[in-house]
Design goal:
Number of helices: 14
Strand order of the largest sheet: 3-4-6-7-8-9-12-13
Largest sheet: 8 strands, parallel, barrel
Shape: globular
Number of domains: 1
Bound molecules: flavin mononucleotide
CATH class: Alpha Beta
CATH superfamily: Aldolase class I
Structural class: alpha/beta
Strand content: 15-25%
Radius of gyration: 21 Å
Distance between the termini: 45 Å
Length: 327
């Protein structure tokens, strides 16, 4: 008998397939659908720092209290204490509607006063909180150290306000991700979600203007995630959820072999429907049967760098003719 249970940030999930933060999890219906299709957990659509600010930001320092910045911060704090209420409703309603874990998601680009909002999310009943932190490293005046500090401050600030587990969802633009991962853990991250796939740009060459790029990934996009899950699993002392390019059962197997505790899926469910989760779980079970594994722990991390016979393979960045065999 094959057992698909996994533990992620101390929570027991019935299987490792988590529906990633997206429009699919932006309302109670979507979350119920995910549970019905067999998901192990859901990450709710993110509430964006800008949204919190926008609702409160109707009040501006200049219009309300010129020259009284501290008082303004206080009033603004009261403003956001009442808003955005809808997201808190989503958290509590989904928590009541399903029995799988509900992970709330906060998108952050700074560690400002709004991090108090995390406390409200905890009170609304979220089992965990995923911090979707994304700072664009394009400002020539900002060093990598400055940017990393923003990440650390956010995690520290939220950690000081909530007791529920915190996952930090990162993009892959880091100079020294091995070090950064360890620092995030030191500041209280219970899990890392590697990696977010950001909104992409394209160009309409007829209208000569910017447009949105294709929003979905394909299986071919999972290479960077696979490498970093394998590099960090067991070394960063943190649970890892793999994200980006996980489309079918074989992708899930690969990520667990690399050491993931769970995987997050969005594009495959947009393109194939939520029912695709059943197919993925069926395929995972079949593979485990075939290879004689009865639980995920029996093969988790088997191909992580930590357990590798040839760790240098994970660090190799350049093509070598003899290895790749395509030149
Ligand atoms: C339409 C859409 C909306 C998304 N919205 C969010 C979001 O609100 N918060 C977030 O952290 N990630 C968001 N994501 C990113 C996904 O959670 C996921 O990390 C990314 O799509 C990579 O996984 P995939 O290859 O399975 O799609 C969104 C993705 C898509 C396609």
């Amino acid at each position: 008998m094959v057992d698909l249970k996994t533990t992620y940030m101390g929570l027991e999930l019935r299987n490792p397939v988590i529906v990633a933060s997206s429009g699919l999890t932006g309302n109670t219906e979507g979350v119920k659908k995910a549970e019905g299709a067999g998901a192990g957990a859901v990450v709710l659509k993110s509430i964006f720092e800008e949204q919190i600010e926008a609702e409160v930001g109707q009040i501006t320092a200049e219009s309300w209290m010129p020259g009284h910045a501290e008082a303004f911060d206080y009033v603004r704090g009261m403003g956001y204490a009442l808003t955005p209420i809808k997201y808190l409703d989503l958290v509590s309603q989904t928590r009541d509607a399903v029995s799988i874990p509900v992970i709330a998601s906060l998108n952050c680009v700074s560690s400002k006063w709004w991090t108090d909002y995390a406390e409200k999310i905890e009170r609304a009943g979220a089992h965990c909180l995923e911090l979707n932190i994304s700072v664009m490293p394009s400002d020539p005046k900002r060093t990598s150290k400055d940017i990393e500090k923003i990440y650390y401050d956010i995690v520290e600030s939220v950690r000081s306000r909530v007791k529920i587990p915190i996952a930090v969802k990162l993009g892959s633009y880091f100079t020294a991700l091995g070090h950064t991962a360890g620092e995030l853990v030191k500041r209280g991250a219970d899990a890392l979600v590697l990696f977010n796939r950001f909104y992409t740009l394209d160009v309409d060459i007829e209208k000569i203007e910017l447009t949105a790029g294709y929003p979905f990934s394909s299986s071919g996009d999972m290479g960077r995630t696979l490498r970093w899950v394998a590099l960090l699993a067991g070394r960063a002392e943190v649970d890892i959820a793999a994200s980006t390019g996980i489309h079918d059962a074989s992708d899930v197997v690969k990520m667990i072999l690399a050491g993931a505790s769970a995987i997050e899926m969005a594009s495959a469910l947009y393109t194939k429907g939520m029912e695709h989760i059943e197919t993925v779980l069926g395929g995972l079970q079949k593979w485990m049967d075939k290879h004689g594994f009865s639980s995920l722990d029996e093969f988790r991390g088997k191909l992580s760098r930590e357990h590798a016979d040839n760790p240098e393979l994970y660090e190799r960045l350049q093509y070598i003719k003899a290895i790749v065999g395509v030149e």
